[in-house]
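Anyone else keep sequences and structure tokens together like this?

Example one:
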Amino acid sequence: MGKLIPNPDNIDVIWDQLEVGDWAFIDSERAILVRLPGCDESHGAGVHLLPLTKESRFCNEREIHWDWDGNREAPTLTPSILCRVSGWHGYLTNGVLVEV
């Protein structure tokens, strides 16, 4: 099970603090950083930024985002997360990364 990295005022510091399965909310909880297994230094040390609302400054023009259950300590996101570089595919459910 991962853990919440609280109050990430400096995103550059957070990248280094996240271990596999950890998460941190950014952009006033409109986005989340999650470190996925099987990822390496070649693409952000395995840390993935997932917009949680269309209002996130990180949401792209297609407005792709993940739904979040509102639980900071053990979040659940939908839909699944797919890392095209490493091939990892799964869910963050109750604060645990579950591969499919």
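And example two:
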Amino acid sequence: MNLNPIVPFEPISTETIPTSSDWITQIKWDGVRILTYFDGHEVRLMNRKQNDRTSQYPELLDIKRYCSATSCILDGEIIAFDQKRPAFQEVMKRESLRNRQSIELAVSRTPITYMIFDILMYNDIWLVDRPLLDRQKVLEEVIIPNSNLQIVQNFNDGNKLFDVMKEHNMEGVISKDLRGTYAIGGKDKRWQKKKIFHDLYAVIGGVTMRNGIVNSLLLGLFENGNLYYIGHAGTGKLSNNDWRNITQLVQSKIILNRPFLNEPARNKEAIWIMPVHTVKVQFLEWTTNRTMRHPSIQALVDMQVTACSFQQNE
């Protein structure tokens, strides 16, 4: 292939969705970022880390079915559905496959949709220095939607779209400046994402340490008198001083046996503690294994732990 892979442009996080007429908002699809490279002879699919994913998605290799360009670079998200909504764990089933026969079976068992939202090169001409509005016009001209491929829709009212996404338990939205160019390898306010998170209060049942300081919490919820592991978290709003305080706090609570009924992923490196302290956690969604996806610690919370204090709220 004559085209060198690039690092795609990334959005920054925001709490306020732009409302100017120069901005549009799109659904933030819960999938895998994939760029399509077509040099006129060969099609290659690469993820955001420039890892080759060409073999994983054979339904996208006949580019003439969906694109009239003689060469191009397309940017988009590959999604797969769990019943009626996109589910990250579903597309991960395709990402993990390496065997050709397994991939061929997965095409029908786990169908994917490529949601295209940008075009960076068209007929050997780079478009990254043109405004998004112009790039979208080119995209509309060259893309032929089909059962495996769609162009991401624009919405003018970003706040209304965000409310709809919350109702349907989706991942969030991305707002984009129609005047904005595309910065390869960049990340700035020309694209702004707002994710939908869930909050809960979780019990600390174990910790991991680095250089004598706690750096991650193993968390659980009580149900019917049993503590169930729901994931570990080491990022969020806690300061270095907070982590030092937690280290001191757990010293007198260390126990020999794990307090969780189920076995945590970090079982070998964990230090078990009495499940009497709680934290407020923000997370994106529940996985099929009933663990939190992208958990973030918001605060250490002083509250009484009882068997009925915690429920897994979807």
